[in-house]
């Protein structure tokens, strides 16, 4: 069952405005269970949404390489 669920996991990088700047949000979604398993938000803020997205994608890549 765990392996079936694992096949339905996908991570997404999004950005969100915060106090006039932007943060990245990484969400791990389990489509099999139809729920969000984890969500993390950056402590750092960025001047543009694109900068936050690039930093979030780099963070996600680093996390994937650690796993």
Q: Which percent band covers the strand fraction?
A: 35-45%
Assign the structural class, choosing from mainly alpha, mainly beta, alpha/beta, alpha+beta, or little secondary structure.
alpha+beta
C-alpha geometry: globular
Please work out how many helical segments DSSP would assign: 2
How many structural domains in the coordinates?
1
Which residues sit in consecutive blocks of at least 5 with pLDDT less than 50? none
Can you summarize the main beta sheet? Answer: 3 strands, antiparallel
**What's the mean pLDDT score?**
91
The helix content is 25-40%
Sheet with the most strands: spatial strand order: 1-2-3
Gyration radius (Cα, Å) is 13 Å
Secondary-structure element string: HEEEH
Count of individual beta strands: 3
Distance between the termini: 21 Å
Notes on the protein architecture:
The protein is built from two helices and three strands; from the N terminus they run H-E-E-E-H. By secondary structure, the protein is α+β, with helices and mostly antiparallel strands. It has one domain. Strands 1-2-3 form a three-stranded antiparallel beta sheet. The protein is globular, with a radius of gyration of 13 Å.
Q: What is the gist of this entry?
A:
By secondary structure, the chain is of the alpha+beta class.
Detail the topology: elements first, then pairings.
Blueprint: H1 2-7, E1 9-18, E2 21-30, E3 35-41, H2 49-66
Antiparallel strand pairs: 1-2, 2-3
């Amino acid at each position: 069952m765990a392996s079936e669920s694992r096949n339905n996991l996908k991570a997404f990088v999004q950005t969100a405005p915060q106090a006039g700047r932007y943060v990245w949000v990484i969400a791990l979604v389990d489509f099999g269970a139809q729920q969000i398993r984890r969500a993390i938000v950056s402590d750092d803020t960025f001047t543009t949404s694109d900068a936050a997205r690039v930093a979030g994608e780099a963070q996600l890549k680093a996390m994937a390489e650690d796993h």
